[in-house]
Description:
The chain has helices at 12-23, 55-59, 71-84, 97-107, 120-136, and strands at 3-7, 28-33, 44-45, 49-52, 64-67, 87-90, 112-114, 142-145, 167-170. It has 180 residues and is an alpha/beta fold. The protein folds into two domains: 3-114, Rossmann fold, CATH 3.40.50; 120-174, no CATH class. The strands form two sheets. It has a seven-stranded mixed β-sheet, sandwiched between helices. The protein has a two-stranded antiparallel sheet with strand order 8-9. Strand 5 (64-67), helix 3 and strand 6 form a beta-alpha-beta unit. The model is unreliable at 155-180 (pLDDT under 50).
Amino acid sequence: xxxxxxxxxxxxxxxxxxxxxxxxxxxxxxxxxxxxxxxxxxxxxxxxxxxxxxxxxxxxxxxxxxxxxxxxxxxxxxxxxxxxxxxxxxxxxxxxxxxxxxxxxxxxxxxxxxxxxxxxxxxxxxxxxxxxxxxxxxxxxxxxxxxxxxxxxxxxxxxxxxxxxxxxxxxxxxxxxxxx
Length: 180
């Protein structure tokens, strides 16, 4: 059974990922990672797994890491995962172009699934917005605005891409552009 490292294990998404792993018959929680200084570091969670702040140690024995943290934390742990040959699933948002290029470099060494939003509804709405802009043409603006719960960590970019307003306009100039 593949062992999974949950990066940011005590955060909102980390807790949800751990819960999903506990319900998955073909996965097991292999390790839990938190930031240095986090109050949970050193404590134990499910199956006597100790929360670590050492990426290299946490990756040891795991086949995949799942991460919904911050760009800086993600790049640090992803680099360690690339060195260890551990596959990576990343839902972190807010990467700059240079940081996305760094992810591309890591992807040459390990399998990486990176999506700034894993929500089916957000991905469908993003596609619908892009399709509306394409079909309506340059005489119209199509915009997708996202709303988050009040405890969502703010980052440089939202899951739809705009660093300022949480929205991204898809117009003729962006037709065919990849969604970051």
